Automatic annotation (TrEMBL):
<comment type="pathway">
    <text>Cofactor biosynthesis; riboflavin biosynthesis; riboflavin from 2-hydroxy-3-oxobutyl phosphate and 5-amino-6-(D-ribitylamino)uracil: step 2/2.</text>
</comment>
<dbReference type="InterPro" id="IPR023366">
    <property type="entry name" value="ATP_synth_asu-like_sf"/>
</dbReference>
<dbReference type="InterPro" id="IPR001783">
    <property type="entry name" value="Lumazine-bd"/>
</dbReference>
<keyword id="KW-0677">Repeat</keyword>
<feature type="repeat" description="Lumazine-binding">
    <location>
        <begin position="97"/>
        <end position="193"/>
    </location>
</feature>
<dbReference type="GO" id="GO:0004746">
    <property type="term" value="F:riboflavin synthase activity"/>
</dbReference>
<protein>
    <recommendedName>
        <fullName>Riboflavin synthase</fullName>
        <ecNumber>2.5.1.9</ecNumber>
    </recommendedName>
</protein>
<feature type="domain" description="Lumazine-binding">
    <location>
        <begin position="97"/>
        <end position="193"/>
    </location>
</feature>
<feature type="domain" description="Lumazine-binding">
    <location>
        <begin position="1"/>
        <end position="96"/>
    </location>
</feature>
<comment type="function">
    <text>Catalyzes the dismutation of two molecules of 6,7-dimethyl-8-ribityllumazine, resulting in the formation of riboflavin and 5-amino-6-(D-ribitylamino)uracil.</text>
</comment>
<dbReference type="InterPro" id="IPR026017">
    <property type="entry name" value="Lumazine-bd_dom"/>
</dbReference>
<keyword id="KW-0808">Transferase</keyword>
<dbReference type="Pfam" id="PF00677">
    <property type="entry name" value="Lum_binding"/>
</dbReference>
<dbReference type="InterPro" id="IPR017938">
    <property type="entry name" value="Riboflavin_synthase-like_b-brl"/>
</dbReference>
<keyword id="KW-0686">Riboflavin biosynthesis</keyword>
<feature type="repeat" description="Lumazine-binding">
    <location>
        <begin position="1"/>
        <end position="96"/>
    </location>
</feature>
Amino acid sequence: MFTGIVEELGEIVAIEAEGDSAVLTIRGPLVTEDAVHGASIAVNGVCLTVVDAKGGTFTADAMKETLDRSSLGALEPGSKVNLERPVRLSDRLGGHLVQGHVDGVGTILSREPGECWDVVTVSLPAPLARYVVGKGSITIDGISLTVVEAGADRFSVALIPTTLSLTTLGHKKPGDPVNLEVDVVAKYVERMLGDRAAGGLVDGATGGVA
């Protein structure tokens, strides 16, 4: 589990294709300080498992499902990526609960520079629109952000100077793909309401309907 607070702007060092999968080598001196084989690191919002870590870099396997459902397949050596280690139970939850499971890929539609921030509009895949609301949370390339406005096929976010300087969104341009993860709480609520509409939840203690 992550929080969407990017720890480090890393860089793709190498990509080695292996059939329909790929091995990524990523530079990230901060996130590899305590990385061991089997650890998790979010790369542009995608939870990847560390295969090896040494010299400030780590390698991770990206399966076909990951490449197909995220923007990782479009990366190349030199690409900048947002990196975050999993949250500890003792840590403050600075952003919101992020699983590192990409729900879809959006596209940067526009950027409107402001005095101290940029307003960025992103396309929204139709199946995800019902989970995105104004002032709600969404994850873009692993960054926890607050939705400014939400429409049927797009939404906007405001990027503060810190986000612009410390993450990939500082230099993304219209036409660039971004990974999207909607608020997991919204998905659980939808599922629970759907179960109730289908007949209710059974109370295990009484055999009644909750």
